[in-house]
Amino acid sequence: MHVFNDLKFRPWAAALIDTFYALRFPTLARRFRRVHGRAPKIALPETYYDWMQWRKLVDHNPLFVTLGDKLKARDYVAQRIPALMLPRLLWAGDGSAAIPEDVLRSNVVVKTSNGSNRNFFIRDGKYAPDELSRTLKRWRAEGPYERRLGEWAYGQIERRIFVEELLPCSTGPLIDIAIRAGGGQVAFGSLVLHTKTDRESTIYLSREGERLSVECGAGISEADLDAVPVPEGYAAAVAHAAHLSRNIDYARFDFLWSDGALYGGEITVYPGSGIDLLHLQTHRRETTPMSVWDVRKSWFLSTPQPGWRGVYREMLLDELDRRGWIAVP
Q1: For residue range 29-78, what is the model confidence (pLDDT) as tens digits?
Q2: Could you tell me if 251 and 268 are in contact, meaning their C-beta atoms sit under 8 angstroms apart?
Q3: Which of 50, 173, 189, 266 sits at 20 to 30 Å (Cα–Cα) from 272?
Q4: Structure confidence by residue, pLDDT tens digits, 303-318
Q5: Mean pLDDT on 90-96
Q6: Does residue 215 surpass a pLDDT of 80?
Q7: How many other C-beta atoms lie within 10 A of the C-beta of residue 15?
Q8: What are the angstrom distances between the C-alpha of 267 and each of 54, 69, 73, 125?
Q9: In whole angstroms, what is the distance from residue 176 CA to residue 253 CA?
């Protein structure tokens, strides 16, 4: 019997694995401890946040590369839900290619295929070319998040720059709809307003659209958020996310609600890098991530692994059996 499978030595083996990853990804370890007040439990995960670190560092599902690639994810969504609109793709090129000037003469957003929070907004064709050039240069210098936070999939994605149309919002604010789902089941959703600004605010909803809790940005009150109606497209977003998640153990499926129309968005397999706290104030287990995330169906645990990974896989499966597969929300 391998030492990993000896219950007497299992805590020592787990501590060894956790120490290895903490030394390899010190930025991740420091950030996790700053937010959660402890080190992540990667070898034998317990909470949702632990499982997310495990996913980043251990569960290298090849599908995550496709889902994490913003350009390929567009095709993934379009193939499965042809009727769902997507923001128009106006141009795409490698990281060093020059964007044609005529592409930038309207309302557009410049993005990169291999990272998050990389958006350069242009309205009415007005922008500073030097600022755009510096932004693109910074994106190239930053590299993928894989190096700092262990987000493996981003390190495998071909780095490309692309330009999408900026959706109109003449009849109301643009609302980001994010649905957490896995295995064809939806746990909960959220509405995000004033995204990527200091006023960014979130309304958490059950899959039926019941309000669970709110997170207020600068200058936004709970009363302000109470006045925001649930978009008509929320139910459709929930249904689409359930469909898209059938062959995915867990992810966040993003949509955009603009001028009475629903658009498909990104698929995020490392939401908040699995570190940022979910301000989901609910005691209902059915509205937590682990209510739909069956980690046994993850690529790593459902696929034979070579060498020490195979031994570790058996150890973790045995540990889940001993727990009766109950994770802490």
Answers
A1: 999 999 999 999 999 999 999 999 999 999 999 999 999 999 999 999 99
A2: yes
A3: 173
A4: 999 998 998 999 999 9
A5: 83
A6: yes
A7: 14
A8: 19, 9, 7, 28
A9: 10
Tokens describing residue 118: 């990389």
26-36 helix and 10-24 helix, angle to the nearest 10 degrees: 110
Q: Would you say 95 and 160 are in contact if contact means Cβ atoms under 8 Å apart?
A: yes
Beta bridge partners of 268: 252
- The total number of residues shown for the chain amounts to 329
Helix (H) or strand (E) holding 190: strand 185-193
| 1: pLDDT strictly greater than 50 | no
Residue 158 and residue 132: Cα distance in Å, rounded?
A: 21
Q: Which amino acid is at 160?
A: R
* Burial degree of 306 (CB within 10 A; 0-12, 13-18, 19+): exposed
Query: What are the Cα distances from residue 175, in Å, to 21, 132, 169?
Result: 37, 25, 9
Using a cut of 0.85, tell me whether the model's pTM lies above it.
Answer: yes
pLDDT digits (tens, 9 = 90+) for 157-175: 988 999 999 998 877 788 9
Number of H helices, E strands in the chain: 12, 10
DSSP secondary structure letter of residue 264: E
Q: For 280, which DSSP code?
A: -
Locate tokens 């219950």: which residue?
7
The backbone torsions φ and ψ at residue 268, rounded to the nearest 5 degrees and listed phi first, read -110, 115
Q: What is the DSSP letter of 276?
A: S
Residue in the structure block whose two tokens are 């309207």: 106
Give 138's Cβ-side CA count (13 Å radius). 11
